[in-house]
Amino acid sequence: MIVYHLGETCDLEEVEEGKAYLGWVQGFAPFGIFVQLNDRIKGLVHKSNVKLQHRERDPIIVRVIKIRSNGNIDLEEITPTVYQTQSVIKKTSSVLLSDIGKRIGRTVLIEGEIAQVKQTSGPTIFTVVDESGTGNAAAFIEAGVRAYPEVELGDIVALTGEVMQRNNQLQIEVASMVVLEPEDATRVRERIDAALDKRAEPLDVPFLIESSVLEALRPQMRRVAREVRKAVMASRPIILRHHADADGICAAVAVEQAVTALIRESGGDFDAEYFLFKRSPSKAPFYEIEDITRDLDFALKDNVRYGQKMPMILLMDNGSTDEDIPSLKVTRIYDLPVMVVDHHHPDESVDEYLIAHVNPYHVGGDYGLTAGMLGAEIARLINPEVEDQIRHLPAIAGVGDRSEAPEHARYLALAAPEYSEDDCRDIALALDYEQFWLRFSDGREIVKDILNLGGDPVRHERLVSLLVEEANSAIEEQVEVVMPHVKSRMLPNGAHLFMLDVELFAHRFTFPPPGKTSGEVHDRLIREHPGEPVVTLGFGPDFAVLRSRGVMMNIPQMVRELRAEIVGGGVSGGGHLVVGSIKFVEGMRDAVLESLIQKIGEAPI
Ligand code: MN
After folding, report:
1. Does CATH number 3.40.640.10 belong to domain 201-462?
2. How many separate helices (H) and strands (E) can be counted in the chain?
3. Banded pLDDT at 189 (limits 50, 70, 90)
4. In the CATH scheme, what is the code of domain 2-88?
5. Which residues surround ligand 1, an ion (CB under 5 A)?
6. pLDDT in tens, 359-389
7. Going along 194-297, which residue ranges are E strands?
Protein backbone atom coordinates (compact mmCIF):
# COMPACT_ATOMS: atom_id res chain seq x y z
CA MET A 1 0.00 0.00 0.00
CA ILE A 2 0.98 3.66 -0.36
CA VAL A 3 1.50 5.97 2.56
CA TYR A 4 1.63 9.63 1.59
CA HIS A 5 3.92 12.21 3.02
CA LEU A 6 2.58 15.75 2.74
CA GLY A 7 5.07 18.36 1.57
CA GLU A 8 5.62 21.52 3.60
CA THR A 9 3.51 23.74 1.40
CA CYS A 10 0.53 21.39 1.17
CA ASP A 11 -2.73 22.33 2.79
CA LEU A 12 -6.16 20.79 3.10
CA GLU A 13 -6.62 20.66 -0.65
CA GLU A 14 -3.97 17.95 -0.93
CA VAL A 15 -5.49 15.75 1.78
CA GLU A 16 -7.84 13.06 0.49
CA GLU A 17 -10.34 10.94 2.36
CA GLY A 18 -9.47 7.25 2.41
CA LYS A 19 -5.76 7.79 1.85
CA ALA A 20 -3.04 6.92 4.35
CA TYR A 21 -0.55 9.53 5.55
CA LEU A 22 2.61 9.56 7.54
CA GLY A 23 2.38 12.11 10.37
CA TRP A 24 3.69 12.65 13.87
CA VAL A 25 2.02 12.77 17.26
CA GLN A 26 1.49 16.36 18.32
CA GLY A 27 -0.38 15.99 21.60
CA PHE A 28 -2.83 14.05 23.72
CA ALA A 29 -6.40 14.77 24.79
CA PRO A 30 -8.87 12.70 26.90
CA PHE A 31 -10.76 11.72 23.73
CA GLY A 32 -7.75 10.85 21.50
CA ILE A 33 -4.46 11.92 19.89
CA PHE A 34 -3.71 14.97 17.74
CA VAL A 35 -1.60 14.13 14.70
CA GLN A 36 0.22 16.62 12.42
CA LEU A 37 0.32 15.62 8.74
CA ASN A 38 2.68 18.54 8.10
CA ASP A 39 3.37 21.82 9.90
CA ARG A 40 0.02 23.25 8.91
CA ILE A 41 -2.40 20.33 8.95
CA LYS A 42 -3.60 18.61 12.07
CA GLY A 43 -6.19 15.86 12.61
CA LEU A 44 -7.60 13.78 15.42
CA VAL A 45 -7.45 10.04 16.04
CA HIS A 46 -10.32 9.16 18.35
CA LYS A 47 -9.17 6.98 21.25
CA SER A 48 -11.26 4.10 19.87
CA ASN A 49 -9.12 4.24 16.72
CA VAL A 50 -5.71 4.30 18.43
CA LYS A 51 -3.84 1.01 17.98
CA LEU A 52 -0.44 1.54 19.62
CA GLN A 53 1.18 3.35 22.51
CA HIS A 54 2.65 6.73 21.57
CA ARG A 55 4.81 9.53 22.85
CA GLU A 56 4.93 13.08 21.58
CA ARG A 57 6.65 13.47 18.17
CA ASP A 58 6.39 9.73 17.42
CA PRO A 59 5.81 8.99 13.76
CA ILE A 60 2.39 7.52 13.14
CA ILE A 61 0.55 6.22 10.10
CA VAL A 62 -3.07 7.29 9.83
CA ARG A 63 -5.93 7.01 7.38
CA VAL A 64 -8.25 9.93 6.72
CA ILE A 65 -11.80 8.88 7.62
CA LYS A 66 -13.52 12.16 6.98
CA ILE A 67 -12.71 15.80 6.32
CA ARG A 68 -15.45 17.85 7.99
CA SER A 69 -16.83 21.02 6.47
CA ASN A 70 -15.24 23.07 9.27
CA GLY A 71 -11.83 21.65 8.27
CA ASN A 72 -11.50 19.18 11.11
CA ILE A 73 -9.98 15.89 10.05
CA ASP A 74 -11.02 12.55 11.50
CA LEU A 75 -8.22 10.00 11.42
CA GLU A 76 -7.70 6.39 12.34
CA GLU A 77 -4.39 4.79 13.12
CA ILE A 78 -3.33 1.96 10.83
CA THR A 79 -0.35 -0.38 11.13
CA PRO A 80 0.51 -1.72 7.69
CA THR A 81 3.42 -4.16 7.61
CA VAL A 82 4.45 -3.44 4.02
CA TYR A 83 4.05 -0.04 2.40
CA GLN A 84 5.71 2.57 0.23
CA THR A 85 5.88 6.23 1.03
CA GLN A 86 5.24 8.84 -1.55
CA SER A 87 5.60 12.59 -1.30
CA VAL A 88 2.72 14.89 -2.03
CA ILE A 89 3.54 18.31 -3.40
CA LYS A 90 1.21 21.25 -3.43
CA LYS A 91 -0.56 21.24 -6.76
CA THR A 92 -1.72 24.75 -7.22
CA SER A 93 1.50 26.65 -6.76
CA SER A 94 3.53 25.32 -9.69
CA VAL A 95 5.26 27.97 -11.75
CA LEU A 96 5.93 27.90 -15.48
CA LEU A 97 9.57 27.82 -16.53
CA SER A 98 8.96 30.81 -18.77
CA ASP A 99 8.05 32.83 -15.65
CA ILE A 100 10.96 32.02 -13.36
CA GLY A 101 12.87 35.09 -14.55
CA LYS A 102 10.40 37.13 -12.52
CA ARG A 103 11.07 35.06 -9.41
CA ILE A 104 14.81 35.32 -8.89
CA GLY A 105 15.67 34.62 -5.27
CA ARG A 106 12.35 32.94 -4.59
CA THR A 107 11.43 29.31 -4.19
CA VAL A 108 9.30 27.85 -6.94
CA LEU A 109 7.63 24.56 -7.71
CA ILE A 110 8.09 23.28 -11.25
CA GLU A 111 6.37 20.32 -12.86
CA GLY A 112 8.00 19.01 -16.00
CA GLU A 113 9.75 16.31 -17.93
CA ILE A 114 13.42 15.53 -17.42
CA ALA A 115 14.98 16.15 -20.84
CA GLN A 116 18.59 15.69 -19.88
CA VAL A 117 20.62 14.63 -16.87
CA LYS A 118 24.20 15.85 -16.96
CA GLN A 119 26.66 15.03 -14.22
CA THR A 120 29.27 17.76 -13.80
CA SER A 121 32.29 17.71 -11.52
CA GLY A 122 30.07 19.71 -9.14
CA PRO A 123 26.28 19.40 -9.16
CA THR A 124 23.99 17.24 -11.28
CA ILE A 125 22.26 19.39 -13.89
CA PHE A 126 18.73 18.39 -14.83
CA THR A 127 17.24 19.96 -17.94
CA VAL A 128 13.51 20.24 -17.43
CA VAL A 129 10.86 20.91 -20.06
CA ASP A 130 7.38 22.11 -19.26
CA GLU A 131 4.58 23.49 -21.37
CA SER A 132 6.23 26.92 -21.50
CA GLY A 133 9.91 26.24 -22.11
CA THR A 134 13.14 24.70 -20.94
CA GLY A 135 15.11 25.29 -17.77
CA ASN A 136 18.08 23.98 -15.85
CA ALA A 137 17.93 22.74 -12.30
CA ALA A 138 21.10 22.04 -10.31
CA ALA A 139 21.09 19.48 -7.53
CA PHE A 140 24.02 18.87 -5.28
CA ILE A 141 24.85 16.23 -2.71
CA GLU A 142 28.59 15.94 -3.11
CA ALA A 143 30.98 17.11 -5.85
CA GLY A 144 30.62 14.87 -8.88
CA VAL A 145 28.02 12.61 -7.29
CA ARG A 146 24.74 12.01 -9.04
CA ALA A 147 21.92 13.66 -7.11
CA TYR A 148 18.48 12.05 -7.11
CA PRO A 149 19.67 8.82 -8.77
CA GLU A 150 16.07 7.62 -8.92
CA VAL A 151 15.20 10.46 -11.31
CA GLU A 152 15.78 9.38 -14.89
CA LEU A 153 15.62 10.81 -18.39
CA GLY A 154 11.98 11.13 -19.47
CA ASP A 155 10.54 11.09 -15.94
CA ILE A 156 7.88 13.60 -14.99
CA VAL A 157 8.95 15.33 -11.80
CA ALA A 158 7.86 17.97 -9.36
CA LEU A 159 10.79 19.94 -8.07
CA THR A 160 11.14 22.87 -5.74
CA GLY A 161 14.07 25.18 -5.42
CA GLU A 162 15.32 28.72 -5.41
CA VAL A 163 15.68 30.59 -8.70
CA MET A 164 19.22 31.85 -9.14
CA GLN A 165 20.98 33.77 -11.84
CA ARG A 166 24.41 32.51 -12.85
CA ASN A 167 26.43 33.89 -15.76
CA ASN A 168 23.32 35.43 -17.25
CA GLN A 169 21.54 32.10 -17.06
CA LEU A 170 18.65 31.22 -14.84
CA GLN A 171 19.00 28.10 -12.79
CA ILE A 172 16.93 26.49 -10.08
CA GLU A 173 18.85 25.20 -7.07
CA VAL A 174 16.94 22.06 -6.26
CA ALA A 175 15.65 21.66 -2.70
CA SER A 176 13.44 18.68 -3.42
CA MET A 177 12.54 16.59 -6.43
CA VAL A 178 10.12 13.70 -6.72
CA VAL A 179 9.12 11.53 -9.62
CA LEU A 180 5.37 11.89 -9.98
CA GLU A 181 3.20 8.84 -9.67
CA PRO A 182 1.69 7.44 -12.88
CA GLU A 183 -1.64 9.20 -12.46
CA ASP A 184 -0.13 12.63 -11.81
CA ALA A 185 2.63 12.06 -14.34
CA THR A 186 0.05 11.33 -17.02
CA ARG A 187 -1.82 14.50 -16.15
CA VAL A 188 1.36 16.61 -16.40
CA ARG A 189 2.60 14.84 -19.51
CA GLU A 190 -0.71 15.38 -21.28
CA ARG A 191 -0.62 19.03 -20.30
CA ILE A 192 2.94 19.42 -21.61
CA ASP A 193 2.24 17.49 -24.81
CA ALA A 194 -0.86 19.50 -25.58
CA ALA A 195 0.97 22.76 -24.97
CA LEU A 196 4.00 21.67 -27.03
CA ASP A 197 1.74 20.59 -29.89
CA LYS A 198 0.19 24.00 -29.84
CA ARG A 199 3.46 25.91 -29.55
CA ALA A 200 5.11 23.69 -32.17
CA GLU A 201 2.45 24.48 -34.76
CA PRO A 202 4.23 26.56 -37.42
CA LEU A 203 3.00 29.99 -38.42
CA ASP A 204 1.32 30.07 -41.79
CA VAL A 205 3.77 32.35 -43.58
CA PRO A 206 3.38 32.73 -47.34
CA PHE A 207 6.20 31.22 -49.38
CA LEU A 208 8.95 33.52 -50.69
CA ILE A 209 7.81 32.93 -54.26
CA GLU A 210 4.72 31.77 -56.09
CA SER A 211 4.69 28.06 -56.77
CA SER A 212 1.85 25.61 -57.09
CA VAL A 213 4.23 22.75 -56.34
CA LEU A 214 5.30 24.39 -53.08
CA GLU A 215 1.65 25.01 -52.17
CA ALA A 216 0.86 21.34 -52.77
CA LEU A 217 3.80 20.40 -50.54
CA ARG A 218 2.79 22.77 -47.76
CA PRO A 219 1.10 20.18 -45.51
CA GLN A 220 4.19 17.94 -45.49
CA MET A 221 6.52 20.93 -45.09
CA ARG A 222 4.48 22.11 -42.11
CA ARG A 223 4.73 18.66 -40.69
CA VAL A 224 8.53 18.70 -40.90
CA ALA A 225 8.60 22.19 -39.37
CA ARG A 226 6.26 21.15 -36.55
CA GLU A 227 8.32 18.06 -35.68
CA VAL A 228 11.56 20.07 -35.71
CA ARG A 229 10.03 22.76 -33.48
CA LYS A 230 8.70 20.14 -31.13
CA ALA A 231 12.09 18.43 -30.91
CA VAL A 232 13.71 21.76 -30.00
CA MET A 233 11.06 22.48 -27.37
CA ALA A 234 11.42 19.03 -25.85
CA SER A 235 15.26 19.24 -25.92
CA ARG A 236 15.49 16.29 -28.27
CA PRO A 237 18.74 16.44 -30.28
CA ILE A 238 18.43 16.80 -34.05
CA ILE A 239 20.87 15.28 -36.52
CA LEU A 240 20.65 16.88 -39.93
CA ARG A 241 22.27 14.79 -42.64
CA HIS A 242 22.60 16.31 -46.07
CA HIS A 243 24.23 15.70 -49.39
CA ALA A 244 27.63 17.40 -49.38
CA ASP A 245 27.02 19.65 -52.39
CA ALA A 246 25.96 23.29 -52.72
CA ASP A 247 22.24 22.46 -52.85
CA GLY A 248 22.38 20.11 -49.88
CA ILE A 249 24.45 22.60 -47.88
CA CYS A 250 22.01 25.45 -48.60
CA ALA A 251 19.07 23.29 -47.52
CA ALA A 252 20.78 22.26 -44.32
CA VAL A 253 22.21 25.65 -43.40
CA ALA A 254 18.82 27.33 -43.81
CA VAL A 255 17.33 24.87 -41.32
CA GLU A 256 20.42 25.19 -39.12
CA GLN A 257 19.93 28.95 -38.88
CA ALA A 258 16.28 28.50 -37.95
CA VAL A 259 16.90 25.77 -35.41
CA THR A 260 19.90 27.25 -33.62
CA ALA A 261 18.05 30.55 -33.16
CA LEU A 262 15.08 28.64 -31.76
CA ILE A 263 17.32 26.71 -29.37
CA ARG A 264 18.89 29.95 -28.12
CA GLU A 265 15.42 31.38 -27.52
CA SER A 266 14.07 28.40 -25.66
CA GLY A 267 16.42 28.68 -22.69
CA GLY A 268 18.48 25.80 -21.35
CA ASP A 269 22.25 25.52 -21.67
CA PHE A 270 24.34 28.23 -23.31
CA ASP A 271 25.98 25.64 -25.59
CA ALA A 272 22.76 23.75 -26.30
CA GLU A 273 22.88 24.83 -29.94
CA TYR A 274 25.98 22.67 -30.35
CA PHE A 275 24.90 19.48 -28.65
CA LEU A 276 21.21 19.65 -29.57
CA PHE A 277 21.85 20.27 -33.26
CA LYS A 278 24.39 18.49 -35.44
CA ARG A 279 24.75 19.01 -39.15
CA SER A 280 26.68 16.34 -41.03
CA PRO A 281 27.41 16.18 -44.74
CA SER A 282 27.10 12.78 -46.45
CA LYS A 283 29.51 12.02 -49.24
CA ALA A 284 27.12 9.73 -51.05
CA PRO A 285 23.80 11.08 -52.31
CA PHE A 286 22.07 8.74 -49.87
CA TYR A 287 22.17 7.86 -46.16
CA GLU A 288 25.03 5.40 -46.08
CA ILE A 289 25.48 2.64 -43.53
CA GLU A 290 28.65 4.44 -42.53
CA ASP A 291 26.64 7.58 -41.75
CA ILE A 292 23.94 5.93 -39.65
CA THR A 293 26.55 3.89 -37.81
CA ARG A 294 28.45 7.02 -36.87
CA ASP A 295 25.26 8.90 -35.92
CA LEU A 296 23.99 6.04 -33.82
CA ASP A 297 27.34 5.57 -32.10
CA PHE A 298 27.43 9.23 -31.04
CA ALA A 299 23.77 9.30 -30.07
CA LEU A 300 24.05 6.26 -27.82
CA LYS A 301 27.19 7.60 -26.16
CA ASP A 302 25.60 11.01 -25.60
CA ASN A 303 22.59 9.23 -24.17
CA VAL A 304 24.72 7.32 -21.69
CA ARG A 305 27.37 9.96 -20.90
CA TYR A 306 25.35 13.15 -20.97
CA GLY A 307 21.88 11.80 -20.34
CA GLN A 308 20.62 13.13 -23.65
CA LYS A 309 17.50 11.98 -25.41
CA MET A 310 17.90 9.90 -28.55
CA PRO A 311 17.91 12.14 -31.62
CA MET A 312 15.53 12.87 -34.44
CA ILE A 313 17.09 12.54 -37.91
CA LEU A 314 16.39 14.91 -40.77
CA LEU A 315 17.76 13.95 -44.18
CA MET A 316 18.01 16.72 -46.76
CA ASP A 317 18.89 16.39 -50.44
CA ASN A 318 19.07 12.64 -49.87
CA GLY A 319 17.07 9.94 -48.18
CA SER A 320 14.30 9.15 -50.63
CA THR A 321 15.56 6.12 -52.54
CA ASP A 322 15.94 2.36 -52.09
CA GLU A 323 19.62 2.91 -51.34
CA ASP A 324 18.63 4.54 -48.04
CA ILE A 325 16.71 1.50 -46.81
CA PRO A 326 19.56 -0.36 -45.06
CA SER A 327 20.26 2.70 -42.88
CA LEU A 328 16.57 3.40 -42.31
CA LYS A 329 16.18 -0.13 -41.01
CA VAL A 330 18.74 0.69 -38.32
CA THR A 331 16.83 3.81 -37.28
CA ARG A 332 13.76 1.69 -36.73
CA ILE A 333 15.53 -0.63 -34.30
CA TYR A 334 16.40 2.36 -32.13
CA ASP A 335 13.06 4.09 -32.67
CA LEU A 336 14.66 7.18 -34.14
CA PRO A 337 12.13 9.35 -35.96
CA VAL A 338 13.33 10.16 -39.49
CA MET A 339 12.15 12.85 -41.89
CA VAL A 340 13.22 13.43 -45.48
CA VAL A 341 13.31 16.60 -47.56
CA ASP A 342 14.55 15.63 -50.99
CA HIS A 343 14.10 16.25 -54.67
CA HIS A 344 15.58 13.04 -56.01
CA HIS A 345 13.11 10.71 -57.67
CA PRO A 346 11.60 8.91 -54.66
CA ASP A 347 11.04 5.19 -54.20
CA GLU A 348 7.86 4.42 -52.28
CA SER A 349 9.69 1.82 -50.24
CA VAL A 350 11.26 4.48 -47.98
CA ASP A 351 7.98 5.89 -46.72
CA GLU A 352 7.23 3.19 -44.18
CA TYR A 353 10.37 4.30 -42.31
CA LEU A 354 9.58 8.03 -42.28
CA ILE A 355 7.35 10.25 -40.21
CA ALA A 356 7.41 12.94 -42.92
CA HIS A 357 8.64 13.12 -46.49
CA VAL A 358 8.74 16.28 -48.58
CA ASN A 359 9.42 15.57 -52.23
CA PRO A 360 8.20 17.53 -55.26
CA TYR A 361 7.69 14.28 -57.21
CA HIS A 362 4.85 13.41 -54.80
CA VAL A 363 2.82 16.33 -56.12
CA GLY A 364 3.71 16.39 -59.80
CA GLY A 365 6.82 18.53 -59.44
CA ASP A 366 10.35 17.46 -60.19
CA TYR A 367 14.06 17.78 -59.51
CA GLY A 368 14.05 21.49 -60.43
CA LEU A 369 12.52 22.43 -57.09
CA THR A 370 15.72 21.68 -55.24
CA ALA A 371 16.39 20.71 -51.65
CA GLY A 372 17.84 24.16 -50.95
CA MET A 373 14.59 25.81 -52.03
CA LEU A 374 12.51 23.44 -49.92
CA GLY A 375 14.93 23.84 -47.03
CA ALA A 376 14.76 27.63 -47.00
CA GLU A 377 10.95 27.58 -47.02
CA ILE A 378 10.84 24.98 -44.25
CA ALA A 379 13.34 27.03 -42.26
CA ARG A 380 10.91 29.97 -42.43
CA LEU A 381 8.10 27.74 -41.16
CA ILE A 382 10.34 26.63 -38.30
CA ASN A 383 11.38 30.16 -37.43
CA PRO A 384 10.14 33.05 -39.61
CA GLU A 385 12.73 35.39 -38.12
CA VAL A 386 15.55 33.90 -40.16
CA GLU A 387 14.01 34.97 -43.45
CA ASP A 388 16.27 37.95 -44.05
CA GLN A 389 19.39 35.89 -43.58
CA ILE A 390 18.46 32.99 -45.82
CA ARG A 391 16.43 34.45 -48.68
CA HIS A 392 19.39 34.13 -51.09
CA LEU A 393 20.06 30.46 -50.32
CA PRO A 394 17.44 28.98 -52.71
CA ALA A 395 18.99 30.85 -55.63
CA ILE A 396 22.45 29.49 -54.81
CA ALA A 397 20.99 26.00 -54.42
CA GLY A 398 19.23 26.25 -57.78
CA VAL A 399 22.39 27.35 -59.54
CA GLY A 400 24.35 24.57 -57.81
CA ASP A 401 21.91 21.90 -58.99
CA ARG A 402 21.32 23.55 -62.40
CA SER A 403 17.61 23.87 -61.79
CA GLU A 404 15.46 24.61 -64.80
CA ALA A 405 12.25 24.94 -62.81
CA PRO A 406 10.28 28.19 -63.03
CA GLU A 407 10.75 28.54 -59.29
CA HIS A 408 14.48 28.95 -59.79
CA ALA A 409 14.03 32.08 -61.86
CA ARG A 410 11.80 33.52 -59.13
CA TYR A 411 14.33 32.79 -56.41
CA LEU A 412 17.06 34.35 -58.54
CA ALA A 413 14.93 37.47 -58.92
CA LEU A 414 14.38 37.54 -55.18
CA ALA A 415 18.11 37.36 -54.50
CA ALA A 416 19.06 39.68 -57.35
CA PRO A 417 19.20 43.01 -55.51
CA GLU A 418 22.13 41.68 -53.50
CA TYR A 419 23.33 38.56 -55.29
CA SER A 420 23.48 38.29 -59.07
CA GLU A 421 23.30 34.92 -60.78
CA ASP A 422 27.09 35.08 -61.14
CA ASP A 423 27.46 35.72 -57.41
CA CYS A 424 25.26 32.69 -56.75
CA ARG A 425 27.38 30.59 -59.10
CA ASP A 426 30.55 31.73 -57.31
CA ILE A 427 29.13 30.95 -53.90
CA ALA A 428 27.95 27.52 -55.07
CA LEU A 429 31.40 26.74 -56.42
CA ALA A 430 33.06 28.02 -53.24
CA LEU A 431 30.80 25.72 -51.20
CA ASP A 432 31.65 22.70 -53.34
CA TYR A 433 35.35 23.47 -53.18
CA GLU A 434 35.44 24.07 -49.43
CA GLN A 435 33.30 21.02 -48.71
CA PHE A 436 35.79 18.90 -50.62
CA TRP A 437 38.48 19.88 -48.11
CA LEU A 438 36.11 19.74 -45.12
CA ARG A 439 35.33 16.13 -46.07
CA PHE A 440 33.06 14.85 -43.28
CA SER A 441 33.05 18.05 -41.24
CA ASP A 442 30.21 20.52 -41.42
CA GLY A 443 32.48 23.58 -41.15
CA ARG A 444 29.60 25.42 -39.52
CA GLU A 445 31.31 28.80 -39.19
CA ILE A 446 33.34 28.72 -42.43
CA VAL A 447 30.24 27.79 -44.37
CA LYS A 448 28.36 30.67 -42.74
CA ASP A 449 31.05 33.04 -44.00
CA ILE A 450 30.80 31.61 -47.51
CA LEU A 451 27.02 32.13 -47.44
CA ASN A 452 27.43 35.58 -45.89
CA LEU A 453 25.68 34.61 -42.67
CA GLY A 454 28.77 35.28 -40.58
CA GLY A 455 28.09 38.98 -40.13
CA ASP A 456 31.21 40.15 -41.97
CA PRO A 457 30.36 40.90 -45.63
CA VAL A 458 33.90 41.99 -46.48
CA ARG A 459 35.39 38.74 -45.27
CA HIS A 460 32.62 36.87 -47.09
CA GLU A 461 33.59 38.52 -50.36
CA ARG A 462 37.31 37.98 -49.91
CA LEU A 463 36.80 34.36 -48.91
CA VAL A 464 34.46 33.53 -51.79
CA SER A 465 36.66 35.15 -54.40
CA LEU A 466 39.74 33.33 -53.09
CA LEU A 467 37.95 29.97 -53.06
CA VAL A 468 36.51 30.55 -56.53
CA GLU A 469 39.91 31.45 -57.89
CA GLU A 470 41.49 28.33 -56.43
CA ALA A 471 38.62 26.10 -57.50
CA ASN A 472 38.69 27.42 -61.04
CA SER A 473 42.40 27.01 -61.44
CA ALA A 474 42.17 23.46 -60.09
CA ILE A 475 39.33 22.71 -62.52
CA GLU A 476 41.20 24.26 -65.43
CA GLU A 477 44.30 22.25 -64.66
CA GLN A 478 42.27 19.06 -64.39
CA VAL A 479 40.29 19.62 -67.59
CA GLU A 480 43.41 20.51 -69.54
CA VAL A 481 44.98 17.23 -68.51
CA VAL A 482 41.88 15.19 -69.25
CA MET A 483 40.66 16.64 -72.56
CA PRO A 484 43.34 15.09 -74.82
CA HIS A 485 42.31 11.67 -73.52
CA VAL A 486 38.61 11.98 -74.24
CA LYS A 487 37.48 9.37 -76.77
CA SER A 488 34.42 10.02 -78.86
CA ARG A 489 31.91 7.76 -80.54
CA MET A 490 28.77 8.28 -82.57
CA LEU A 491 25.87 6.22 -81.16
CA PRO A 492 23.14 4.56 -83.27
CA ASN A 493 20.59 7.08 -82.02
CA GLY A 494 22.72 9.94 -83.29
CA ALA A 495 24.08 11.06 -79.94
CA HIS A 496 27.72 11.92 -79.36
CA LEU A 497 29.26 9.73 -76.70
CA PHE A 498 32.40 11.02 -75.01
CA MET A 499 34.38 8.77 -72.72
CA LEU A 500 37.14 9.57 -70.31
CA ASP A 501 39.08 7.45 -67.88
CA VAL A 502 39.20 9.69 -64.83
CA GLU A 503 41.34 7.18 -62.99
CA LEU A 504 44.23 7.09 -65.46
CA PHE A 505 44.06 10.56 -66.96
CA ALA A 506 43.06 12.87 -64.15
CA HIS A 507 44.66 13.91 -60.88
CA ARG A 508 43.30 11.82 -58.08
CA PHE A 509 42.40 12.67 -54.49
CA THR A 510 42.17 16.35 -55.26
CA PHE A 511 39.61 18.84 -56.38
CA PRO A 512 37.73 18.39 -58.67
CA PRO A 513 36.81 14.78 -57.85
CA PRO A 514 35.80 12.37 -60.66
CA GLY A 515 32.12 13.31 -60.78
CA LYS A 516 32.79 17.01 -61.03
CA THR A 517 35.66 16.44 -63.48
CA SER A 518 33.27 14.60 -65.79
CA GLY A 519 30.72 17.37 -65.36
CA GLU A 520 33.23 20.06 -66.31
CA VAL A 521 34.33 18.09 -69.36
CA HIS A 522 30.69 17.56 -70.29
CA ASP A 523 30.00 21.30 -70.07
CA ARG A 524 32.87 21.97 -72.42
CA LEU A 525 31.72 19.32 -74.87
CA ILE A 526 28.15 20.57 -75.05
CA ARG A 527 29.48 24.03 -75.81
CA GLU A 528 31.51 22.50 -78.64
CA HIS A 529 28.44 20.69 -80.00
CA PRO A 530 25.62 23.19 -79.73
CA GLY A 531 22.17 21.76 -80.32
CA GLU A 532 23.35 18.17 -80.58
CA PRO A 533 22.63 15.31 -78.17
CA VAL A 534 25.68 14.65 -76.01
CA VAL A 535 26.44 12.01 -73.38
CA THR A 536 29.62 12.12 -71.31
CA LEU A 537 30.75 8.97 -69.56
CA GLY A 538 33.55 9.30 -67.03
CA PHE A 539 34.78 6.08 -65.51
CA GLY A 540 37.28 4.58 -63.12
CA PRO A 541 38.12 0.96 -62.37
CA ASP A 542 34.81 0.24 -60.63
CA PHE A 543 32.56 3.20 -61.25
CA ALA A 544 31.11 5.35 -63.98
CA VAL A 545 29.49 8.77 -63.91
CA LEU A 546 27.07 9.90 -66.58
CA ARG A 547 26.05 13.34 -67.80
CA SER A 548 23.78 13.94 -70.72
CA ARG A 549 21.99 16.53 -72.76
CA GLY A 550 19.26 15.89 -75.27
CA VAL A 551 19.06 12.14 -74.67
CA MET A 552 16.05 10.76 -72.83
CA MET A 553 17.75 8.30 -70.52
CA ASN A 554 16.42 6.75 -67.38
CA ILE A 555 19.56 5.97 -65.41
CA PRO A 556 17.90 4.20 -62.44
CA GLN A 557 16.08 2.01 -64.96
CA MET A 558 19.30 1.25 -66.88
CA VAL A 559 21.04 0.33 -63.62
CA ARG A 560 18.25 -2.11 -62.77
CA GLU A 561 18.53 -3.74 -66.20
CA LEU A 562 22.33 -3.98 -66.05
CA ARG A 563 22.11 -5.52 -62.64
CA ALA A 564 19.78 -8.23 -63.95
CA GLU A 565 21.54 -8.81 -67.25
CA ILE A 566 25.18 -8.86 -66.20
CA VAL A 567 25.57 -11.77 -63.82
CA GLY A 568 28.46 -11.22 -61.45
CA GLY A 569 28.75 -7.56 -62.42
CA GLY A 570 27.78 -6.27 -59.00
CA VAL A 571 26.04 -3.32 -60.59
CA SER A 572 24.43 -0.72 -58.35
CA GLY A 573 23.82 2.99 -58.27
CA GLY A 574 21.35 5.44 -59.65
CA GLY A 575 20.83 9.14 -59.27
CA HIS A 576 18.62 11.32 -61.38
CA LEU A 577 17.10 10.37 -64.70
CA VAL A 578 19.85 12.02 -66.76
CA VAL A 579 22.69 12.46 -64.25
CA GLY A 580 23.93 9.53 -62.26
CA SER A 581 26.64 7.22 -61.09
CA ILE A 582 27.04 3.49 -61.36
CA LYS A 583 29.21 1.10 -59.40
CA PHE A 584 30.34 -2.36 -60.45
CA VAL A 585 33.15 -4.82 -59.82
CA GLU A 586 36.46 -3.99 -61.45
CA GLY A 587 36.83 -7.27 -63.34
CA MET A 588 33.50 -6.74 -65.12
CA ARG A 589 34.07 -3.16 -66.17
CA ASP A 590 34.29 -3.71 -69.91
CA ALA A 591 31.13 -5.83 -69.99
CA VAL A 592 29.21 -3.32 -67.90
CA LEU A 593 30.36 -0.28 -69.88
CA GLU A 594 29.68 -1.90 -73.25
CA SER A 595 26.19 -2.87 -72.20
CA LEU A 596 25.62 0.58 -70.72
CA ILE A 597 26.73 2.26 -73.95
CA GLN A 598 24.40 0.03 -75.92
CA LYS A 599 21.49 1.17 -73.77
CA ILE A 600 22.44 4.82 -74.13
CA GLY A 601 22.58 4.28 -77.90
CA GLU A 602 19.01 3.01 -77.86
CA ALA A 603 17.59 5.84 -75.80
CA PRO A 604 15.33 8.27 -77.65
CA ILE A 605 16.79 11.64 -78.55
MN1 MN B 1 20.19 18.57 -54.74
Report:
1. no
2. 16, 23
3. very high
4. 2.40.50.140
5. 247, 317, 370-371, 401
6. 999 999 999 999 999 999 999 999 999 999 9
7. 238-243, 277-282
